[in-house]
C-alpha cells in the first residue's frame, strides 16, 4: 500500500499537482515506516530505509500556497480551509494563538472559534488524539472565565478520546496551526478571521461558511516531517 501511494505521488508530481503529491508522499512514507517497525529482516529494513530516504528527498518541504481572504468574503469556514490537509494520518495538532481568550464581552467569540475548530477535528476524517494549545492569559477578571471555558472544552474533548493540553505564554505573538503530517498553516488573524454576527438568529451565526470575514492572508507550508526509523 505504501509503494502504491508513493507511485501515485510521483505521477501527481510529474503532472504538477504538487499539493496532492505531497500529501501522497507523506502518507506513503508513513505506511513504509510502519512496515520498517514490523520487519525483523535487517536487509529488508535497510532497503525500506533507503526508499524512505529517497521519497523524503522528493517530498522535502518546498511547497507554499497563499490564500487571500477579502473583506466581507464568505465561504471560508474551517472545514473548507483545512480539509485538504487533514488526512487520515493526522493524529496530533498544535495551535499557537495569543488570543484564545475573552478580554471583554464583545470578543467572547474567540473562544467559540477555538471550540468550532476542535469540533471540526473531532468530525474527521482525521483521527486526532491530541491537541496542543499555546495561548496567553486573559487580563483581570477575564482570566477565570477563560480558564473555565478552556477546561470545559478540555473535558468535552476527552469524551471523544481527544486530549487537550493547554500552555500559556506572555510573549507569544505568532499565530500558526501545525498537523503531524507536515502541514503548517499561518493565518494573519489566527482563528479569529470571522466578523461578529449581526445577531444570534442571523444567517452565518451557526454556519461559518456563510459568515463574512475580515481581510486576511493564509499561508500554507509543508515542512519535512522526520520520524525515527
TrEMBL record:
Domain MIT stretches: 2-54
Domain of life: Eukaryota
Residues of the MITD1 C-terminal phospholipase D-like domain: 75-222
GO biological process: midbody abscission
Pfam family, one: MIT_C
InterPro entries cross-referenced by the UniProt entry: MIT_dom (IPR007330), MIT_dom_sf (IPR036181), MIT_domain_contain_protein1 (IPR052817), MITD1_C (IPR032341), MITD1_C_sf (IPR038113)
Protein name per UniProt: MITD1 protein
GO CC annotations on file: midbody
Encoding gene per record: Mitd1
